[in-house]
Amino acid sequence: MKSENIAAVSTPAGRGGVAVIRLSGDSPLAVAEQMFLPRGNTRVKDFQPYRMYPGEIVAEHFKDFGLCVYFKAPHSFTGEDVVEFHCHGGTSIARGILSRALSLGCRGAERGEFTKRAFLNGKLSLSSAEGLIDMINGESEAEVRAGYMLYGETLKNEADGLQAEITDILAGIDADMDFPEEDIEHTDLSDIAVRLKKLSAKLSSLTASYGTGRKIKQGVRVVIAGRPNTGKSSLLNALLQAEKAIVSSVPGTTRDAVEGTLEIEGVRFNLYDTAGIRESENEIENIGIARARALIDGADLILFVLDGSEKMSEEDEEIYRQVADKPKIVVSNKNDLQGEGGEKCDIRVSAKTGENIAALRAMMLEKSMAGYDTDAAFLIEKRHYDALACALAEINEAVSLCGNVPLDLLGVHLKAAWDKLGEISGKTATEEIINEIFSKFCVGK
Ligand code: GDP
């Protein structure tokens, strides 16, 4: 099949040490022949693949000294012939070299077109391409790790395995229906039921892993709650090691949710401070109280702060009741004052001296990311979650119907689940889904 040569600057706009212009298609080397003058004796058309050749890159109105490398199909990123020019990293340099490639017949690449071609040529799956975007867009190390897990096909392999199991069950059902009168061994319904339940369990645990994946992608929402003056703002500052919240010894001064972000072992945590959850005559503070309640409802983790220098008050107990059934860490602050409070606490800290703040961070990670295994498949993309949740619903339907309906009806649900699983790799994804995914890429990727 013919594939048009496309070209784009693959490095970000702006100044830098080097910039890379990438060409991919049927004949990028023929284009390079017209715009690269090698310094050595090897002519461009005789370039060996995967070797860097120094020479002059000839743009429309200037030349730059740089490198040219040829990747031979199918062993290239796109699966096609690819040529890269490595020039000096200036906006006008890269743009000038690109426009020369365009005037020599290349078409400007669309967003993500290189990766889309790689997908269409079977170099990577759809979920692998999504992992690549996650890595590129990732703002924390955990996002990069999670993206790499997808990029390395861990999730796709898992989905493929589940599909293979469904195919196998379907084959048994088909054989049974094709030769109903024959004296072959008929499908054992109880065996099918067992296998379907196993599939259901695997899909359940995969869909459940989206909780972890979502936290990695969006950051763990941590809400600091407690009555005024227990040291919530101070604790927030100690955790962030920055003076972001206003610290005051007058109760009720932290009126708004103050946000700060920190990373614990590469996982992003978004912290929210609350204005003390207490009834008040003060209208502004009441707005804060409503917000605090909403924040607590949406939290992944609560840091419930007590003043360790005092016994728990009725107000403390009241707030404690509100957060009792949420994932939480009860923090007894002001440990430097050697008080007798903090009866129900999980950890004693001092925001003032920094005592146990590192231990609190470790506890926050442990509590919110329990069972997080960086090597296993887990879900970070909503698209994957939706597909697997649908597959799970179909399998569960099949489980409940098993034994009560003709086998071919069971097959309908199994086939639907199979199709949904194929959306992970892209085997059964619609063109619309595929286009949407690649449009999230930048030009040049
Ligand atoms: P918030 O109302 O819960 O946000 O409390 P703040 O962070 O504003 O702190 C209330 C008061 O307690 C301030 O005077 C802080 O300096 C003081 N404070 C906070 N943390 C500690 C601590 O660990 N030890 C001591 N001794 N004082 C603290």
Describe the protein:
Its cofactor is K(+). Keywords: Cytoplasm, GTP-binding, Hydrolase, Magnesium, Metal-binding, Nucleotide-binding, Potassium, tRNA processing. GO terms for molecular function: GTP binding; GTPase activity; metal ion binding. The protein has three domains: about 5-110, Probable tRNA modification gtpase trme, domain 1 (Gyrase A, domain 2); about 130-210 and about 380-440, tRNA modification GTPase MnmE domain 2 (Four Helix Bundle (Hemerythrin (Met), subunit A), Up-down Bundle), CATH 1.20.120; about 220-370, Rossmann fold (3-Layer(aba) Sandwich), CATH 3.40.50.300. The mean pLDDT is about 90. It has helices at about 30-35, 90-105, 115-120, 125-135, 140-150, 155-180, 190-210, 210-220, 230-240, 285-295, 315-325, 355-370, 380-400, 405-425, 430-440, and strands at about 5-10, 15-25, 35-40, 50-60, 65-70, 80-90, 105-110, 220-225, 260-265, 265-275, 300-305, 330-335, 345-350. The longest helix is centred in the middle third of the chain and has 25 residues, at about 155-180. The relative contact order is 0.12. It is built from 15 helices and 13 strands. The strands form two sheets. A seven-stranded mixed β-sheet has the order 3-4-5-6-2-1-7. Strands 9-10-8-11-12-13 form a six-stranded mixed β-sheet, with helices on both faces. The chain is α/β, with parallel strands linked by helices. Strand 1 (about 5-10) and strand 2 (about 15-25) form a beta hairpin. Guanosine-5'-diphosphate (GDP) binds near residues 230 and 350.
